[in-house]
Design brief:
The complex is a heterodimer of chains A (294) and B (238). Chain A has a single domain, classed as ABC transporter involved in vitamin B12 uptake, BtuC, CATH 1.10.3470. Chain A is built from eleven helices and four strands, in the order ααααβββααααβααα. Chain A has a two-stranded antiparallel ribbon with strand order 1-4. In chain A, strands 2-3 form a two-stranded antiparallel ribbon. The relative contact order of chain A is 0.20. Chain B is an alpha/beta fold and 238 residues long. Chain B has a single domain, classed as Rossmann fold (3-Layer(aba) Sandwich), CATH 3.40.50. Chain B contains nine helices and ten strands. In chain B, β4 and β5 form a beta hairpin. In chain B, α6 runs parallel beside α7. Classes of the chains: A mainly alpha (294), B alpha/beta (238). Chains A and B meet through α6 and α7 of A and α2 and α3 of B.
């Protein structure tokens, strides 16, 4: 029973992390149809910042990591994607692959191929005992952080004019522009929010591993993209739910698959993904066939 | 500015898709306080005309709003110059409430201080929107959604209101309600440009109706032409 609870909390935490990463991708996709694979490199930039600045104190390191992630995200938009407004989603995706590989090489040149380490928030790596169940502090912190960010985002999207504009643009960008919502404002906002979410993911994963290399953000981005697609990348809530589901399933499989099969947990997750996409190609949370934007 | 300059003036408008002309140098006037119709068969270039005026697709020619050239402006800036489009198929934000849709319509206002008055006017014109203000827009009937789409455009306080097939998919009663509202909007001194498929109805309602055929204006009709079968046949079949 205690093992079940423990793995449940771990799975919730993994789901929350991937949910945030998928949301970072879904927010931008909703507005400009870009499934930004280079989100991984924003996560990596945030992680490097944490590693290199942690000794200055968390109150400097964390805001600094957020600023770096947001600036890199905006820089990607300004220097690459804003020049490709007429491109198809497939072309944009390929461009984001290119940008991702380019940034990985830049990280390699700047910080070498070796992993950089630092004890980022190492106190969160400890376990606590609640009613006889040992739970990792980081899992609890991740769930709380995700809840806080999602509540803040929800309040922003529903209670503020800017948030409402972003929500409208994510639902129907063409109509949003036709009624007077400035394209550059909502696109910039989506990239900035994506950067904040990527910084949160960077924090959680850096605490988890304590080591960052040039391809640090890639594995989580692949799973987040998969999650966003199966949840329904067309919808902000779909991307979030899909990311959560993939993270949750991966963690549960890691806990419950027999030892000799646990190396294949990703294969099981992708089998689940294929099954979902065969039954609901538009994603779990999209009604009908899903919107196709021209 | 004299009253004659107010409204929309389009001169030698051209639109092409991948080099294939869709609109071939049309000119039209939509004076303030008048409703002008644009009818024609499918593929005649009606929607392309409206979208190009909004700056949503590239165009050639000149578009003047209240005498000011709006060349090269993107849609969100065209709205700030006083032109609003109610798109074909309504395109309300289905997951947002009626009130949120109206709030979003006000983003493009030139005069932000007039929001409360604009909202009051829209709700007076379409009382059903007041009743359902907290309801998700996607749960409204087609006619109610059309009222919301028009109300949302009016929240930007446009001088020129353009509508792309506002009767599409609506019941006769809903169509009547929409055109009654358009009559009020015309009475308020707005310039109204309506693209429609329903020829007789549009010709009778509008002060003047242009017939668009293969990207060119082939006829200009007056309300008294509405029941003239020969004229209508010529309008659609050449």
């Amino acid at each position: 029973m205690s093992q079940l609870l423990q793995s449940l909390v771990d799975a919730l935490s993994a789901g929350a992390t991937l949910g945030l990463a998928a949301l970072a991708i879904g927010l931008v996709f909703g507005v400009i149809r870009l499934a930004n694979f280079a989100t991984g490199e924003i996560i990596t930039a945030g992680a490097y910042t944490l590693i290199f600045t942690w000794q200055l104190g968390w109150y400097i390191s964390i805001p600094f990591a957020i600023i770096v992630a947001v600036l890199l995200s905006l820089l990607m938009e300004l220097s690459v994607f804003s020049r490709m407004r007429a491109a198809t989603p497939a072309t944009l995706l390929i461009a984001s692959f290119g940008l991702s590989f380019l940034l990985q090489r830049v990280y390699e040149l700047a910080f070498t191929n070796n992993v950089q380490t630092a004890p980022v928030a190492s106190e969160l790596a400890q376990s606590i005992s609640i009613g006889g169940v040992r739970i990792q502090m980081l899992s609890v912190a991740t769930i709380l952080l995700a809840a806080l960010l999602l509540t803040g985002l929800q309040l922003f999207l529903t209670r503020t004019s800017l948030g409402l504009q972003l929500k409208a643009a994510a639902a129907d960008f063409k109509t949003a522009r036709l009624i007077g919502i400035p394209a550059s404002r909502v696109i910039g906002l989506s990239f900035a929010l994506s950067g904040i979410l990527a910084a949160a993911v960077a924090f959680v994963t850096t605490v988890q591993t304590g080591a960052v290399g040039p391809t640090f953000g890639v594995p989580i981005t692949i799973l987040a993209l998969v999650g966003a697609v199966i949840g329904g990348i067309d919808k902000i809530s779909g991307a979030l739910a899909g990311g959560f589901l993939v993270g949750f399933a991966t963690s549960m499989l890691a806990s419950w698959l027999p030892q000799d099969m646990s190396n294949f947990k990703d294969a099981y997750v992708f089998m689940l993904v294929i099954g979902v996409l065969l039954m609901r190609p538009q994603g779990l949370l999209i009604r009908g066939r899903g919107a196709v934007r021209t | 500015m004299s009253n004659a300059d107010k409204g929309l003036s389009v001169v030698d408008l051209t639109v092409a898709y991948n080099g294939v002309p869709a609109v071939r140098g049309i000119s039209l006037e939509v004076p303030a306080g008048q409703a002008i119709g644009l009818i024609g068969p499918n593929g005649a270039g009606k929607s392309s005309t409206l979208l190009s005026i909004m700056g949503a697709i590239p165009r050639g020619g000149t578009v003047l709003v209240d005498g000011i050239d709006i060349a090269g402006l993107p849609p969100e800036k065209v709205v700030r110059k006083g032109v609003s489009l109610v798109p074909e198929g309504r395109h309300v934000f289905a997951e947002l409430t009626v009130m949120d849709n109206l709030r979003l319509g006000a983003v493009g206002r030139r005069d932000k201080s007039g929001y409360a008055e604009a909202l009051e006017n829209v709700l007076a014109l379409f009382p059903i929107l007041s009743e359902f203000s907290a309801r998700q827009a996607g749960l409204l009937s087609g006619g109610q959604q059309q009222q919301l789409a028009i109300g949302r455009s009016l929240m930007a306080d446009p001088d020129v209101l353009m509508l792309d097939e506002p009767s599409l998919g609506l019941s006769p009663t809903a169509v009547d309600a929409v055109f009654e509202a358009l009559d009020v909007i015309r009475g308020l001194g707005k310039a109204v440009l309506v693209v429609e498929q329903r020829a007789e109805f549009t010709i009778a309602f509008c002060d003047r109706t242009y017939v668009l055929h293969d990207g060119e204006i082939t006829l200009t009709l007056k309300p008294e032409d509405a029941n003239n079968v020969d004229v209508l046949t010529q309008a659609y079949f050449g």
